[in-house]
What we know:
Six copies of one chain form a homohexamer.
Chain A: E1 4-16, H1 25-32, E2 41-53, H2 65-80, E3 83-84, H3 99-116, E4 120-129, E5 132-136
Parallel strand pairs in A: 1-3
Antiparallel strand pairs in A: 1-2, 2-4, 4-5
Helix pairs in contact in A: 2-3
Amino acid sequence: METVYITRRETFNAAHKLYRPDWSEEKNEEVFGKCSNKNWHGHNFVIYVTVKGVPNEDTGFVMNLKDLSALLNESVIEELDHKNLNLDVPFMKDVMASTENLVILIWKRIEGSIREKGGELAKIKLVETENNYVEYYGGKEPF
Amino acid sequence: METVYITRRETFNAAHKLYRPDWSEEKNEEVFGKCSNKNWHGHNFVIYVTVKGVPNEDTGFVMNLKDLSALLNESVIEELDHKNLNLDVPFMKDVMASTENLVILIWKRIEGSIREKGGELAKIKLVETENNYVEYYGGKEPF
Amino acid sequence: METVYITRRETFNAAHKLYRPDWSEEKNEEVFGKCSNKNWHGHNFVIYVTVKGVPNEDTGFVMNLKDLSALLNESVIEELDHKNLNLDVPFMKDVMASTENLVILIWKRIEGSIREKGGELAKIKLVETENNYVEYYGGKEPF
Amino acid sequence: METVYITRRETFNAAHKLYRPDWSEEKNEEVFGKCSNKNWHGHNFVIYVTVKGVPNEDTGFVMNLKDLSALLNESVIEELDHKNLNLDVPFMKDVMASTENLVILIWKRIEGSIREKGGELAKIKLVETENNYVEYYGGKEPF
Amino acid sequence: METVYITRRETFNAAHKLYRPDWSEEKNEEVFGKCSNKNWHGHNFVIYVTVKGVPNEDTGFVMNLKDLSALLNESVIEELDHKNLNLDVPFMKDVMASTENLVILIWKRIEGSIREKGGELAKIKLVETENNYVEYYGGKEPF
Amino acid sequence: METVYITRRETFNAAHKLYRPDWSEEKNEEVFGKCSNKNWHGHNFVIYVTVKGVPNEDTGFVMNLKDLSALLNESVIEELDHKNLNLDVPFMKDVMASTENLVILIWKRIEGSIREKGGELAKIKLVETENNYVEYYGGKEPF
């Protein structure tokens, strides 16, 4: 009866570029600026995964953070850490490697596994630099 | 007519453990891992208390932050800072000392006093480590 | 169909005071405390501007962050950085220079320009010190 | 025989400007840029005071941090917090209100009192913004 | 010929108290304040270990950070994380559990192993709270 | 007569890998681990550049931070931001792209220009992730 939101933070370091081969150099540069550098650039990404639920009476936990962390490491961090988001990540194939697209696809990867563990995925925040981040609520619009 | 949310941050350092005496050592270890260490461990907790309201015409304040800080120090920080959450805190008696339970019980302690000061408690965020925190909206589910 | 929230962070350093000339010294001191110091004080403000939308198919962007940053620098940072909020900022004229009022007036300044660029302003968070900040959702109350 | 360095962090919020009345507007603008704004600007300053010494056998302390904090609050924070560095601070009279000058003058104010408490002031770090800070070792040049 | 300093950061969460059984309650309270709470309190400690050396020609490394991290986890984090510094840590036996003493004893534990790996321990910084930390250079006094 | 150290912070986001083509896959993997991923990874680097000197009597400045920042942007950030450290940076040609080597080469690039502006380069700190950074004093060994 008392819904609480718990959040786990993980990190990964990856390379990417924002570049459309079907566009001219000029258009890529105009739209994506420095992010279109052909030889890639990279970031220390920080991801915050929020799960909602009612604390379990025995444990006081919405979900065991050890389980949540293990699940995230297996499904997300292993796939993205020290990788190239455009070349090395099967679930990003044929998708612009923007932070917006990445956050949506991470949601799809983990939503089910979190439900199996008894939690409900509520939000993912993905920080690309100290000056920009994205947040995704599974398509919901809380505000 | 213009609801704004203001947040005050306070800190406290406390010991706790996650351990059920009605469970075997093995089960405690399995569920709570290192957090079940009998001799306690501890954290630098950070609490963010959010109050909503319409700014007062004379002061431009939703609520005077001096009052909010004083209230939090008296009702929360005094009770928890440099304490053992399992042993020293009357309102945590007979409750698993999880961050989830703690945030719910802090809400109950301060909700009324904030209302008396003319504010409306909207959210509490309680940070346990750089890798995990909980958020509570008084049972509401904004997302 | 997949609404994502993107946030851009900018900073500005400004002086202000909280002081009503129609009140006695004593009342100013009682209500505003140290913030009423006649000769001003100041802060390193941090502003987080959140825009919601569906990522564009070609770019993967809710809104180009270069455009958002340029717009914020022109409409907000230029007006506030290294300024006195009480004396130098036309849109703060005759308004108490509280963080609450400031966040509402910043919203009004940028909401339209962001819409023209195809985005929808969803939230502004304005951090005054490490211990207090305000959040504004355009008057909406998500929780 | 085992010298350890301990550091205490305190904060203060102040207004200042960098401006020479004996210079033209143009020269002030050219040298000090936005920092010369006549109506002031301000910062959330953070100060780190480092004291060196051998831990006391009974307490394990180089110096009691409660004493160090009390001393800093009385001699530094009371003088600077919510003040105007150019107008309100006697020990900054007739001195350019640069962070460099401020750190030297803070050193002079507290060096003696720390020695009386049995400590030896070793370093002061004064942070003005997230992008710049100064450090002072009492004139020593460790590197 | 080109000495560079590399630093690895690790974290541990522990309980402790500052309390001398050979002193009266009053004296413990007077000297150690809230830190003398009998039932313990705790912190999220952060440790920064700095090793100096000339980068290896083949690897560009002063020391392999994987090795340094493994060594720190085995010798320090395993011993301290989710532990009680007064009760659970053999190398802190009969020592006041102050941060100063802890940093000296950590140095003694790891100095030799780092040398065996080809590095030279140069500094340890141990952060107890956001407001205080200690630094130790093996007894050296660089300033 | 009163030497003060001033520090400017800048950031850049870059891709790199640690990989020796003259070594086998196995040896690269063994020594460099995940950092040897052929398709690159990346980081949000943060650089802190420290200049020492006596504050100027007229300005109170060791060195004008506007000049220091402009110099760093021109000589360092322009060269490294949104670049591939192995492929795009002439001064890193034929050098292992370790943080140690990078900090030494940045020093060589800016030491002279800072001297021309009347400052003396004293230290560079280069942060690669929240868990590791390097520091370089031009070969000096202050501790």
